[in-house]
Specification:
The chain is mainly alpha-helical. The protein has helices spanning 3-14, 23-39, 57-65, 67-72, 81-94, 98-113, 118-128, 134-148, 153-175, and strands at residues 48-50, 53-55.
């Protein structure tokens, strides 16, 4: 499957019909593909950080040259179950919100591509995206972390132990 077919399949799975004439649609398209790429969906499109977040000129060229295919979401390609799950997880957290996707993708680029520590990446996003409210920035970053963070087995075990302790405490308080 080529990248264009896979992107169209991802957009179809997300319920996103792209209109290349609308800036917000182009922004959503770029950020959806970038976040999916960070999550492990394979795309060859290179991304670089621009004013509105990660951007791929190669992806833009594809959706301009094949605007009709993108708007119809027609492709014979299908996604693997893991790819479909990645799309569902992304749209479940972000919907198709241009602002949240822009903030989340920018944070992802800074934290995962540029390896900035979380606090530094947060500060950089706040500085770069000062036209968004603090609430929007926190929401976008938190959703990016939720989508991209995969806990290790040790982290999962520690979290489960902590949650079990909280559960036992809750049960004891109900008995009293």
């Amino acid at each position: 499957m080529n990248d264009r077919s896979k992107v169209i399949a991802c957009f179809r799975e997300a319920g996103f019909r792209m209109d290349t004439g609308q800036f917000e649609h182009r922004l959503v398209a770029q950020k959806l593909v970038y976040l999916l790429k960070l999550k492990g969906v394979e795309f060859a499109y290179p991304f670089h950080l621009y004013v509105r977040g990660p951007y791929s000129p190669d992806l833009a060229r594809e959706y301009y040259q094949h605007a009709d295919e993108f708007s119809r979401c027609e492709t014979a390609s299908t996604l693997s179950s893991a790819e479909a799950d990645s799309v569902a997880g992304l749209t479940g957290l972000f919907g198709k919100s241009p602002s949240l996707l822009e903030i989340g993708a920018t944070y992802g680029y800074l934290a995962y591509e540029m390896h900035q520590p979380p606090q530094q990446a947060y500060r950089t996003v706040r500085r770069m995206k000062s036209f968004y409210s603090n609430e929007q920035i926190v929401k976008g970053i938190n959703r990016a972390k939720q989508y991209l963070f995969v806990p290790t087995a040790e982290e999962r075990a520690a979290l489960n132990a902590e949650l079990q302790e909280w559960q036992r405490a809750g049960i004891r308080s109900m008995r009293q």
